[in-house]
Design a protein that fits this description.
Layout: H1 8-22, E1 32-37, H2 39-43, E2 53-56, E3 68-72, H3 78-81, H4 85-88, E4 89-95, E5 100-106, H5 117-130, E6 136-140, H6 143-151, H7 156-166, H8 170-173, E7 179-181, H9 189-199, E8 204-207, E9 211-216, H10 219-239, H11 250-260
Parallel strand pairs: 7-8
Antiparallel strand pairs: 1-3, 1-6, 2-5, 3-4, 4-5, 6-9, 8-9
Helix pairs in contact: 5-9, 6-10, 7-10
Bound molecules: Dihydroxyacetone (2HA) and zinc ion.
Length: 270
């Protein structure tokens, strides 16, 4: 059997968690990351019929039964993932209509998956309905997006339009815009359900005064989505207190739609 640490999904996961830490998006145990794995790639590295232990999930997600996920651990620091992946990450397979997860590898100190497991799994289920290629859910605490939720209107259209106006390529990267949740208690099924609902119409969901969720087909795409939104928020925070004498107009945003063959979220442009 192939060494699991040399599997491409593991290498990519470790690199991404490390990049996220280095960006300052994941202080202490902040943030969490999950990726849907193919059964075949899992079987190349371990025997799924021999679970280490079984962990209750606290929710039901029948559509995810039998699916495999590589997930960061609760209380674990992204900073440390590269040094001890077998402690900070785990591979689970959901069973019993999603109510339980067999641990197949990892969390070697007796730990378990992230406290945001409900938000991750419910978001996976929602995104898979929209696009069967979506495999990654990423949560982190980028400073400028967070800062923006204290000073900007939280209306989704207004928030999205501001981000689109901050860098020319934003509308190309996330034409569906960003959805926004008000402050909610994290780690609960309620915030998981609310996030998944928002994931039906956009791959980015801001958690006010907390952070952001991103979804995508792979780790690169998802990282890039959050990176682009965070760059736009950074520019906003640099200029928000200054008189704005120029902007990217709606007419220019329409030109970008044409040039890149994308469609902005219905009703978001004049
Ligand atoms: O502690 O980011 O939302 C990890 C988190 C919770
Ligand atoms: Zn968080």
């Amino acid at each position: 059997m192939k060494n699991i640490l040399s599997a491409s999904f593991m290498i990519e996961m470790i690199r991404t968690a490390t990049n996220m830490y280095n960006r300052g998006w994941d202080e202490r145990n902040g943030g969490n990351l999950s990726m849907l794995l193919e059964e075949q790639e899992v079987r190349e590295t371990l025997n799924p019929e021999k679970p280490v232990r079984t962990i209750p999930t606290g929710f039901t997600a029948p559509e995810l039964e039998g699916k495999y996920f590589l997930v960061t651990g609760t209380g674990k620091y992204f900073k440390n993932v590269q040094y001890a992946p077998e402690v900070n990450l785990g591979i689970v397979r959901l069973k019993d209509r999603g109510r339980q997860a067999d641990l197949l590898w990892g969390y070697e100190d007796g730990g378990q998956f992230t406290s945001e497991f409900p938000a991750h799994m419910m978001s996976h289920a929602a995104r898979l309905q929209v696009n069967a290629e979506n495999r990654v859910i990423m949560h982190c605490h980028p400073a400028n997006l967070l800062a923006m939720t204290f000073v900007h209107d939280l209306d989704e259209k207004a928030f999205t339009r501001t981000l689109w106006q901050m860098c020319t390529e934003c509308i190309v990267v996330f034409p569906e815009g960003v959805n926004v949740l008000p402050w909610m208690l994290c780690g609960t099924n309620e915030i998981g359900e609310a996030t998944a609902e928002k994931m039906r119409t956009a791959r980015l969901v801001v958690w006010s005064h907390h952070g952001i969720y991103g979804a995508g087909k792979d780790l690169d795409e998802t990282f890039g989505l959050i990176e682009t939104a965070e760059k736009a928020a950074e520019i906003y925070m640099k200029i928000a207190h200054l008189p704005r004498i120029n902007t990217i107009t709606d007419a220019q945003l329409h030109l970008l739609e044409k040039r890149f063959g994308i469609r902005a979220r219905e009703g978001y442009l004049d």
